[in-house]
Amino acid sequence: MKLTKLFVFWFLSVLFSVFAQVHKAVTSGKVIDEDGLPIPDVPFLLLKET
């Protein structure tokens, strides 16, 4: 029983720490080509360097 409670506590701690690292942000700007013309509807992914 004590081991089960410890496991549940550990699992919830890991779960909350994972959710705490997920952030949502609003980013704005424009993507341009080599000639400086804007490219519409370009998807992008922001990567965080550690």
Overview in brief:
This protein has 50 residues and is mainly α. The protein is built from one helix and no strands. The protein has one domain.
Question: Topology of this structure?
Answer:
Layout: H1 2-20
Can you give keywords for this protein?
50 residues; mainly alpha
- Give the termini separation: 39 Å
Strand elements, count: 0
Biggest beta-sheet profile: none
Spatial shape: rod-shaped
Q: What's the number of helices?
A: 1
Rounded Rg = 21 Å
Low-confidence stretches: none
Strand and helix order: H
**What's the helical proportion of residues?**
25-40%
Query: In percent terms, what proportion of residues is strand?
Result: under 5%
Based on secondary structure, the structural category is mainly alpha
Task: Tell me what the structure shows.
The protein is mainly alpha-helical. It has one domain. 38% of the residues lie in helices and 0% in strands. The protein contains one helix and no strands. It has one helix spanning 2-20. The longest helix has 19 residues, at 2-20.
